[in-house]
Amino acid sequence: MNILEINNDLFRMLNSLGKEFQFFNLPMIIIAEYTVIFLAIFVILFWFTKDRENKIMLMCASIAFVLAEIIGKFAGLLHFNHQPFAVLSNTNQLIEKAINNSFPSDHTILFFSFCMSFWLFKKGKWILWILLAILVGISRIWVGVHYPLDVMVGALIGITSAIIIYFTLPKLTLIENGITKYESIEKVIRRKFHKTNLM
């Protein structure tokens, strides 16, 4: 049995659970489709805390994601496969998705880039973010839009990028200088906003 057959069998095993345990389908659809909105809201809100370490963490996580996406695009040039629902019969497809190269999973890359960065910066305390990233990966298989290999490679790329950025970028003075400049601009904007409200 080759790796593609194993990939197909693992997909069938996970995806068919949606037919057997249909009460999980709605939660999986929400996780697969809408957790990205939750992540975006969290990032925006957390950016405006006064903790400089949080800003550095979010900046590094964002750069890790960009790096991971670039690596993911190169990986997509080396291997191509359509979404499972476009190739396999009797797929339990629960969400709409354009047919293109599903390798690797962009959602998985996004969540593992950010969640691994959060976990590293918080010294392993934010383990729930890692669990969320894993759940997002599983949900993409459950709803029928990705193979396990798409998800596993996406996770590996996201994790690797987060580790590379974590151990290199915060040490650069460019990051500190960038945060300092941003904070000075933010203070000016806040003062102007405050004066406008007093008038």
From TrEMBL:
<dbReference type="InterPro" id="IPR036938">
    <property type="entry name" value="PAP2/HPO_sf"/>
</dbReference>
<dbReference type="InterPro" id="IPR000326">
    <property type="entry name" value="PAP2/HPO"/>
</dbReference>
<keyword id="KW-0812">Transmembrane</keyword>
<keyword id="KW-0378">Hydrolase</keyword>
<feature type="transmembrane region" description="Helical">
    <location>
        <begin position="56"/>
        <end position="78"/>
    </location>
</feature>
<keyword id="KW-0472">Membrane</keyword>
<dbReference type="GO" id="GO:0005886">
    <property type="term" value="C:plasma membrane"/>
</dbReference>
<protein>
    <submittedName>
        <fullName>Bacteriocin transport permease</fullName>
        <ecNumber>3.6.1.27</ecNumber>
    </submittedName>
</protein>
<dbReference type="InterPro" id="IPR033879">
    <property type="entry name" value="UPP_Pase"/>
</dbReference>
<feature type="domain" description="Phosphatidic acid phosphatase type 2/haloperoxidase">
    <location>
        <begin position="57"/>
        <end position="166"/>
    </location>
</feature>
<feature type="transmembrane region" description="Helical">
    <location>
        <begin position="98"/>
        <end position="119"/>
    </location>
</feature>
<feature type="transmembrane region" description="Helical">
    <location>
        <begin position="126"/>
        <end position="145"/>
    </location>
</feature>
<feature type="transmembrane region" description="Helical">
    <location>
        <begin position="23"/>
        <end position="49"/>
    </location>
</feature>
<keyword id="KW-1133">Transmembrane helix</keyword>
<dbReference type="Pfam" id="PF01569">
    <property type="entry name" value="PAP2"/>
</dbReference>
<dbReference type="GO" id="GO:0050380">
    <property type="term" value="F:undecaprenyl-diphosphatase activity"/>
</dbReference>
<feature type="transmembrane region" description="Helical">
    <location>
        <begin position="151"/>
        <end position="169"/>
    </location>
</feature>
